[in-house]
Amino acid sequence: MSTQKPGIGFVGLGRMGATMASNLVAAGYPIVGFVRRPEQVEALARLGIQGVTGMNPILDCDIVVTMLPDDKAVREVVFGGKEPGLAAGLAPGAIHLSMSTISPHCAGELAAEHGRRSQGYVAAPVLGNPDAARARQLFVLAAGAAADIERCRPLFDCLGQRTFVIGADPGGANFVKLASNAMSGATAEILGEVMALARKRGSDPAQLLSILTQTMFAGRAVSLYGEKIAAQHYAPGGFTFPLGLKDIKLALAEAEAVAVPMPTLDVVRDRLIAGIEHGYAGLDLSALGLVAADAAGLDTPNEPIAGPAWPGDRTFRLNGIGARKEG
Fold this sequence. Notes:
3-stranded mixed sheet, disordered C terminus, single chain, alpha/beta
């Protein structure tokens, strides 16, 4: 019996995707990664990934992973655009493993198209950031046909610490991911507001956070965002404002479709828009604390700690508790 691992195609080799693909390489999987620019091929080779600038080698793979930013990007890969699409090119029996955070509606469309062509479709968005991906500590949310999930499970085991099987409807996995990201946004927002209040009245944000996390609010999200907000330490990358805004809008669309008011998410959406307008687009969600501090009239950050993610973005650290703006 052959023990050779199946060939895996990978489309979407950003920070998360490249880290995940590297972990699969380390586990012995042959990875073919699609990139648009020839100069990226050499960088992938250093990670043990065979880089290609055309989709045809991807279409020969048994399983193709997509880790893309939004519905539009995934649709283009599946239905084709400048390159052949997965739906038309994958062999019957091949699986599209979509690990992107997309709308449940889009997931349903993709599953139907792959099913029409006798291909498998598994939705498996993940919970965790690039650091968690590097440590193989992601949580995988899997949905689709049971047999297809089992074929993908060895990959999940290489990428994460636990896999949750949501059910047969692929859109269910994407809903859970959106719900989680909505909670993350709301958590970062209330932490930003509370820390701004502490700073403005002269209290110690770090002490406040320590008490909160040791009593009523122990949890990864509160600690992860709270530590950055309390220290006013913001850096580029991770779950950036545009990605957060995209997911909050998708969650609100789900709510609107079934007439469920979500006023907290309305606030988070508006804060993310304000943050992008102020040049914080390259920062992660913890910078909602920066938006809250701005709104409270606290000192604007003035000490750069890293280069901007792109022109116009700012990355800062505040020293001390802070004070009101003058003027």
